[in-house]
Structures are given as C-alpha cells and as structure tokens.
Amino acid sequence: MTDDRHSLELERVPSGIAGLDTVLRGGFLKGGVYIIQGVPGAGKTILANQICFNHVAAGGRAAYVTLLAESHSRMLQHLRPMRFFDETIIPDRLYYISAFNTLEEDGLSGLRDLLQREIRAHHASLLILDGLVAAEEQAGSDREFKKFVHELQMHASMNDCTVLLLTSGSAGPVRAEHTMVDGLIELDDRLFEVRTERSLQVRKFRGSASLRGRHPFRITGDGLVVYPRIEAMYAVPAHPEQPLRTRVATGIEGLDPLIGGGILQATTTILVGPTGIGKTTFGLHFLAQCSEAEPGLLFGFYETPVRLRDKAASLGIDLATLERQGSLAFVWQAQGESILDELAHRLLEAVRSRGVRRLVVDGLDGFLESSIHPDRMSRFLSTLSNELRGLGVTSLFLWEMRNLIGSAVQVPIYGVSTLVENLIILRYVEVEGRIRRLLSITKIRDSGFDPALQEFRITDAGIGILGPLPGYAVTPDALASSGPVSSERPSPRE
Amino acid sequence: MKTILLVEDEFGIAAVLGSILEEEGYRVLVAANGRQALNRLAEEAVAPDLVVTDFMMPVLDGIGLARALRADPAWQDIPIIMMSAVPELTVKRDFTDYVAYLRKPFSVPLFLHRVAAILSEG
Known about the structure:
The complex is a heterodimer.
Chain A: H1 4-8, E1 12-13, H2 18-23, E2 28-29, E3 33-38, H3 44-57, E4 62-66, H4 72-79, E5 94-98, H5 100-121, E6 126-130, H6 132-138, H7 142-158, E7 162-168, H8 176-180, E8 183-192, E9 195-205, E10 214-220, E11 223-226, H9 230-233, E12 247-248, E13 263-264, E14 268-273, H10 279-287, E15 296-300, H11 305-314, H12 319-324, E16 328-332, H13 340-354, E17 358-362, H14 364-370, H15 377-390, E18 394-400, E19 422-431, E20 434-444, E21 454-459, E22 462-468, H16 477-480
Parallel strand pairs in A: 3-7, 3-8, 4-5, 4-6, 6-7, 14-18, 14-19, 15-16, 15-17, 17-18
Antiparallel strand pairs in A: 1-2, 8-9, 9-10, 10-11, 12-13, 19-20, 20-21, 21-22
Chain B: E1 3-7, H1 11-23, E2 27-31, H2 34-43, E3 50-54, H3 62-71, E4 80-84, H4 88-92, E5 100-103, H5 108-121
Parallel strand pairs in B: 1-2, 1-3, 3-4, 4-5
Helix pairs in contact in B: 2-3
C-alpha cells in the first residue's frame, strides 16, 4: 500500500458501484489484475456483470469469459431484471464467450492465447474470467499457474485492460496467485445466529490505499449496494468542526434556562429514559422548533410518521405544517433485518440532501439491534456523531433504558457519556404512592447547568418543567463509566 | 443419415444438444468456435445438411462462420440455424441469411422440431 499522492497518478477504472468505489478509493487501477473470491452464492457473478455494464455505460468495452460457470443464457436471464442490465450493449460492447473447450484442449497456454486474442478483437478495456479455479486445476504445477497469471498480467498491463478473475473459496491461506495479482477482494455471506449478512473485504490492493476491514453489502434490483463501514469511511470527519457558539432552543418549556439558554448548535445530546417516560414527546418538541433556515429530520424506528403526526397534534405541536413547508421530514425504518452501516448511510444521506440542522433519532436501540457486532457500537456512535457535528447538525438521540423505576441507570453501551456533549436522563420515581417523572441534566458540555433534579409533567400542551424535586438522586453510574465497552447487554438492575 | 454441424463454445450446451441430436438419429459434428467449424468442414468429404451455430464465440463468431460458409460454393447452400441469448434483432443487424433463430434458453422439443422441419424441407 502506498500513499494517496502516488495512487492519484494512476488511472482508475471505477466499478460504478458507489460504495465499492469508496472502499477502493476511486476504483481499480487501470491495467491491473484482481481476484474476486467468494463462496458460492456470495455475489461474484452479479458483481462482475454489474461492473461490466457500468464500465460499458461509462464508455468502455468488456469481455466476459467463462470457464466452468453457469451458461450464458441462464446468467443473462438472471441478470435481465437488474436495473443495470442493458441488452443493447451485447455483443458490440460487452461480449460473452466460453473458453472451457480451449482450456481442455489446449491447456493454459491456449487459454492465455484466447484471452489475449479476445482482448484485442473486442478492444476490451475490461476482461472478466469467471471460474479461475478451473484454470488452476488444469495447471500441471503451481509454477505453471503462476506463469499463466504473470503472462496475463503483462498482457493486461500492456493493453490497458483491467482484468477481474472470479474464483470460489473463502478466506484461507494465501495462495500462489494471491501474491501475484494487484488486488484481492473477498466476498462473504455469513450466518449470525438466525440472520445472514453479506460483506466484502479488500485483502490486498497494490498501488493504492483502500478502506480496510469488512464492509456490508446487499444484492438488490440495482445489483450490489455496498455500505462502507462508517468507522472506516469517516475515520477523519469529512467536514471540519466549527467552533461552538450558537445555542438552539430545546422547545421544552422551562428547560433552556437550566442549561445556559439552550443546547449548543452542532452538538449531540443523548436523552435516556424508560419506556413511556416522554422521550419521543421531548423529540417532537425539539423538532417543533424547525424552520426553513433550520430544517429538521426525525429518523425513527418505532412509531410510524402517521402515529407521530397524531401524537404531535394531540400535544398541540403542529408538525404537519412544518412538513408541508419542507422544514421537517420523517424517515422511518421498518423493524426488519437492517444493516447497521446501511442505516447510518441512509441517515447521513437524508441529512445532507435536506440540509438538516435539527435531528432526532428515535432511537439508538434501532441501531443497536441492527448490529451483528455490538462491540462496534461505541466507535460507531462516536464516528456518526462526529460526522453529524461536522455537518452542523444538532442531534438528539433517544435511548431506552431497561429498568423502569429506580435511581440507577443502565444502558447497553458503557462509556457512552464520553461520546456525546450532552446527556439528559429521564426517570420515574415513586413518591408517597405516586409515580413522578424526573429530569436530570447530567452533562452539558461547555455550559453551566442546574444539577438539581427537575420534576416534569406531560399534559395536553406537552412537556413542562415543574421545578426541583428535592431528596431524590439519579445515579448515572454506567453512563459515566469510561471503562471498556461491553459486548453484552447488561440485565436491568435496581 | 443426415449430418449436422453443431458449433457452440459452451461445452455443456454442446454436449447436451449433441447427444440429443444423436439420439434422434443424426450424425453430429461438434466445434467450439467458427474457426474449428471451418476446419471440421474442410476435413469432411461431404458437406453437412445443417449448421446449428451459436452467435457469440471466441476466435470466430457465428456471423463470421456464416459469412465464410456463404462465400464458399461448396457450403453456401447449407441451411443455418443461429442461436443466442441476445434478441434476434441484435443478430439481424449484421446478418439475415439463416433459416431459423433460437433464443436461448430454448426447450429441447422446440429445438428438435425446428431441426426436423428444416431437414425435411431440404
């Protein structure tokens, strides 16, 4: 791997798949030879075909050569419903042939000659060889196979033809051909308890940097959609952080004076509380402050936009008008089998495209439940918060805690308070046989705040702060911990 | 016994179609591309009764083969069935002198019906 200044000098051949090109920092290097490896069904053939169609759409020419693979007619039948598929480019700009007979009859040298001839005959700037394992099996020795790969590499380089070699297999020991080619991309499809997740990893990428680690993807009607892992993609925030000066109103009656006049703009606040305490209502108040100059977004997992509009209306909060004016939008995620990075990219895309300045995420549990690697959550949240901060977004993340009543606060991720600027805890307490709601301002960065526990009430007019309730304490022990991040969800405790 | 020259680069398709035709009582010559097909024809004393050829193939494609056949007086009258996964219009842009077009994937009965019909006409 070299630095980006060097790789900028090398011409790229984009895959045309936005997420993959992000991972590859712009695409394959022109004239390079790359292995795409994966277990059967991982998506290699769709990926290679998608890259071919995208390459042709961008003005190139491609040849798709199969060895032991599915028949071309079946392959094209399967590809036809994909939106990238364009029958009109076959065969003039994209040519499908089988080279298995040549391999059988004339061996690797015959295959090499055929590939060279087809590259020239079709002026191919991209060549796919689907079924590399058949060529490997045909080779009499490792040395013969390495010689084949080397000759193909020389020919690809001299003809400015980028070559993708598809082969089955999963991660294992380094093979001879791996050491020779310019890059190795591994596709995987793993089972995590009862769900599966596809991912890709660039294991080698000679002459260029790439985003390291595994990146999830889906196979959709658009072909492969790759979601670069958030922590890798935004390891350095895309936007410089601005100095914190302006304060924004929370929309909660009586709260802003307690926190120095409001929340500092472009900060992240976590609002923790048990079910039914009023977290979503708090978020609706926050979004009621949206305007044309300060557009808002509710990124929700649980209550649908219809229910949220009704809920807001019942509290006298007119979100419908804000929506009509274009000052507020709802993006709702069905509780299915979402991919953590897919959700984060969808959130960031919605924020960017709408110029969002006020964001409510209802709630963080939606992200947590989508993660197949809970160990990631702390770093994931930190990276996402940084990126939102760089985009000038004042974010309110709602988070449900497990224990309903009591003084201790327990959430699934330790050390979370160190990740965000502001932390507010909502709790139920039992006082003389009655349940009361308390609000505890635990952390407001760079601001003085009133540490007294505040009683609040939810009425037809929404949330209102009633004032301090002496004699009760909320212990944010787990939240304030800066210890290691737990991969297990702690059980509720009182 | 009628002789059919089957030209197909995908060995699986060539093997299946070849064995089906043989079961139907035809003599079958198989080639993996247009160049091989021309070589096979040169080796044969008698011209085949029918050529069934794929469109996209390495070395010499189906149209290249068909044009070579039409240019040679010994073979110019052999009927040709063209087959491919692409729409017929794609082939017709460059070549029309064939008696039937089969779009892959096609059924065996349809294939045999076309072959039998063309050979009975001849």
